[in-house]
Amino acid sequence: MKTVTCTAPVNIAVIKYWGKKDEDLILPTNSSLSATLGQDELRAKTTVAVDSSFKEDKMWLNGKEEGVVSKRIQNVFRETRKRKGNQDSVDGLNQKIHICSENNFPTAAGLASSAAGYACLVYSLSKLFNVQGEISDIARLGSGSACRSIYGGFVEWQMGSLSDGSDSIAKQVTHDHHWPEMCILVLVVSDQKKHTGSTQGMQISVQNSTLLQKRIEIVPNRIKNITKAIIDKDFVTFAEITMKDSNQFHAICLDTYPPISYLTDVSRQIISFVHQFNDHCQQTKVAYTFDAGPNACLYLLEEDLPRVVSLVNHYFPPQNNGLTLTIQGRPVTLQTP
Ligand code: PMV
C-alpha cells in the first residue's frame, strides 16, 4: 500500500466568488480573492492510499464512511490520473483510491470546509501520483474556492476566459509572510450545517438575481484596488472593500428568489459592533466578512487584537456547545468619543 498524508488550511474570501458560468468545470462568473490561514489553524488533514487489493474507491469524512464517492471527487480522480507522472510504484490508472479526511472545525457551516478539504485531497493525490506543475485547476473541479487554498498568503482565483477552464487558476498575490501583522478572528455563531449549500444557492442567484449581473461589472475594479491595498499594507482601504464586498454578496443572496438568508441576528450584531468600534476609534480598525453562513471572520491588525478580543468576549460571550465554542449575542452600545 502507498499512502500520503497532508494538511491544508481554509481560506477566507475578501472578494467573494458567487456564481458559476460552467457547472461541470466550475468556472466562476467573477474572479475572487482570499487569505489562506496558517497550517496550525482551521485545516483539513487527509490521507490518500492506493493498493492493488482495493476493490472500489472509498471515502471517510470525520471518521464516517461516505455512501458514495461524489461526482466531483471522481472528476478530481480522473484529472489527477490523466496527469500522473512517471512512477513505478503506483498504477494510477487502475488502482482504486481510499481517502480519509478530517477537519479540526465544524464541517459545512460556512467556514470554507470544502475549500480546505478539496485542496488537501488534490495536493495529497498530486504527491501520490507524482503530478508536476499547476494543480489549482484540479482543486477547482472539487470546489471552486478550494483552488485558492493551494497557496498561502493572499491569493486570487482568476476567472479566466478559456472554455476548457485551463486559465481559471489561482495565483498568489503576496507570499505568506508579506503582512505578518494581519490577523483573522473567527467567531463561530453556529456550528450547524447550512440550510442552503453554496452550489444550490449560486445556481438560483445566477438564474434570477439582477444584482449578480451588476456585481460582475463591479468586481474587476474591486480586485484591482484591494490588491493594491494588500501590497501597500493599507488596512483602511483593505477593510472597507472587504466589508462592502461581504455586504454585496449577502445582498445578492436576498435579491435571489426565493431569498437566501445566511446571516442571523447575532451576525448582524457583529456587523453593528464592528461599525460602532470603528466609529469609536475614528478609524477603520476591524473588517468583517461572512461566507455562506452566519459565522463572522474579522480581519484586524495585531496591535488591536487584545482590545477587540476583550470587547468580543464581553458582547458575545462564548458558550460551550459540546464540541465547539459558539457565541451568544448581547446588544452592543459603544460610546462614540
Ligand atoms: O467553493 P464553494 O462552492 O464552497 O463556494 C464558496 C463561496 C463563498 O464561500 C461564499 C465565497 C468564497 O469565495 O469563498
TrEMBL record:
<comment type="pathway">
    <text>Steroid biosynthesis; cholesterol biosynthesis.</text>
</comment>
<keyword id="KW-0067">ATP-binding</keyword>
<comment type="similarity">
    <text>Belongs to the diphosphomevalonate decarboxylase family.</text>
</comment>
<dbReference type="GO" id="GO:0005524">
    <property type="term" value="F:ATP binding"/>
</dbReference>
<dbReference type="InterPro" id="IPR036554">
    <property type="entry name" value="GHMP_kinase_C_sf"/>
</dbReference>
<keyword id="KW-1207">Sterol metabolism</keyword>
<dbReference type="Pfam" id="PF22700">
    <property type="entry name" value="MVD-like_N"/>
</dbReference>
<dbReference type="GO" id="GO:0006695">
    <property type="term" value="P:cholesterol biosynthetic process"/>
</dbReference>
<comment type="function">
    <text>Catalyzes the ATP dependent decarboxylation of (R)-5-diphosphomevalonate to form isopentenyl diphosphate (IPP). Functions in the mevalonate (MVA) pathway leading to isopentenyl diphosphate (IPP), a key precursor for the biosynthesis of isoprenoids and sterol synthesis.</text>
</comment>
<keyword id="KW-0444">Lipid biosynthesis</keyword>
<keyword id="KW-0152">Cholesterol biosynthesis</keyword>
<protein>
    <recommendedName>
        <fullName>Diphosphomevalonate decarboxylase</fullName>
        <ecNumber>4.1.1.33</ecNumber>
    </recommendedName>
</protein>
<keyword id="KW-0153">Cholesterol metabolism</keyword>
<dbReference type="Pfam" id="PF18376">
    <property type="entry name" value="MDD_C"/>
</dbReference>
<feature type="domain" description="Diphosphomevalonate decarboxylase-like N-terminal">
    <location>
        <begin position="8"/>
        <end position="170"/>
    </location>
</feature>
<keyword id="KW-0753">Steroid metabolism</keyword>
<dbReference type="InterPro" id="IPR053859">
    <property type="entry name" value="MVD-like_N"/>
</dbReference>
<dbReference type="GO" id="GO:0019287">
    <property type="term" value="P:isopentenyl diphosphate biosynthetic process, mevalonate pathway"/>
</dbReference>
<keyword id="KW-0756">Sterol biosynthesis</keyword>
<feature type="domain" description="Mvd1 C-terminal">
    <location>
        <begin position="184"/>
        <end position="337"/>
    </location>
</feature>
<keyword id="KW-0456">Lyase</keyword>
<keyword id="KW-0443">Lipid metabolism</keyword>
<dbReference type="InterPro" id="IPR014721">
    <property type="entry name" value="Ribsml_uS5_D2-typ_fold_subgr"/>
</dbReference>
<dbReference type="InterPro" id="IPR020568">
    <property type="entry name" value="Ribosomal_Su5_D2-typ_SF"/>
</dbReference>
<dbReference type="InterPro" id="IPR005935">
    <property type="entry name" value="Mev_decarb"/>
</dbReference>
<keyword id="KW-0752">Steroid biosynthesis</keyword>
<dbReference type="GO" id="GO:0004163">
    <property type="term" value="F:diphosphomevalonate decarboxylase activity"/>
</dbReference>
<dbReference type="InterPro" id="IPR029765">
    <property type="entry name" value="Mev_diP_decarb"/>
</dbReference>
<dbReference type="GO" id="GO:0005829">
    <property type="term" value="C:cytosol"/>
</dbReference>
<dbReference type="InterPro" id="IPR041431">
    <property type="entry name" value="Mvd1_C"/>
</dbReference>
<keyword id="KW-0547">Nucleotide-binding</keyword>
